[in-house]
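Hi Y.,

Following your request, here is the sequence exactly as I used it, all 207 residues.
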Amino acid sequence: MRQTQRSCNFLQRLRTRGTDGSAAMEFAFVAPIFFTLMLGILQLGIMIFGQFALQNAVTQAARLIRTGQAQSINTAAAAQCVGGATPGNYGNAANSQQLWFNGQVCCGVTPLMDCSKLQVTVTPFAAGFNGGGNFGAMGAGGTYNSGNACDVVLVRATYPFPIWLPGLNGLMGGTWTFADTAGGSVHTLAGTSAFRNEPFNNGVAGC
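Below is the corresponding structure, written out as tokens. Let me know if you'd prefer a different format.
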């Protein structure tokens, strides 16, 4: 009787020892997939948040052109950001309206993005919305022409968002770039606003 009980206890201990490392082995197989999935979700989440932030910054800054504030701004006295803060990487805003406007866009994405890599292009289209204007042909990147009253203007800001998760760039269809944005392991975020300037001076009665 005792011999039988000892045999049963021995077999039970063998079964227990045989399953001690199974959980660790299973986790070793699953862990790379799990952590890759989690990092991919984190990377995409940050990227989507950056896209919304960039679009919102472009929309807010474009209103300054639409209402004529950008065309008449005294850059020597104006603060680059609401509240008086001055973003880095653009030097003295008093140098030009372009630097001042670039700073307005930068204010909306700092500190999420490196403003030195942010490219802002402002182009008027004489043909207007219904005149067959090619809104894809922005010309040289980084140019600035805010147009006159009643002009149709397109504002676009692009940012090469780095892809640090291996393989994600391929899953997203490769590098998506504009002609004015450097390539590489990046996904180009873009914010765009197209509008007609308001009749913001006395010489224009209406549009």
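The CA atoms of residues 87 and 124 lie 26 Å apart.

Thanks again,
Q.
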